[in-house]
Amino acid sequence: MKKFVLIAAAFIVTGIAGCKKDYLSQEVNPNNPSGASLPLLLAGALNNSTNIVSTGYPGYMVWAGYATTSGNYVPNATINQYQITNTSFNGTWTSWYATLANFNNIQAAASKDASQANFQAIAMIMKAYGFQHLVDQFGDVPYTQAFQPSTILFPAYDKGSDIYEDLGKQLDAAIALIHANGSAVSPGASDIVFAGNMTGWLKFANSLKLRLALRVSGTPAAPKTDPLITDLASTAADGYLDGTTEAIANPGYQNLAGKQNPIYGGFGLDANGNPGGTGVYYRANAFEVNLLNSDNDPRATAIFNLVPPPGSPAGTPATIVRGNIFGDNSSNNLTNNYTSTFSGPGITKSSSQGQPLFLGSESLFLQAEAANRGLTGGDAQALYEAGITASFKELGLTAAQAATYYGQAINGVSWAASTDKEAAIITQKWIALSGNFPFEGWNEFRRTGYPNVPSSIDPAKVLTNTPYRVLYPLSELTTNTANLAKEGNIDVSTSKIFCMK
Question: Between the N and C ends of the chain, which has fewer C-beta atoms within 10 Å?
Answer without folding.
Answer: N
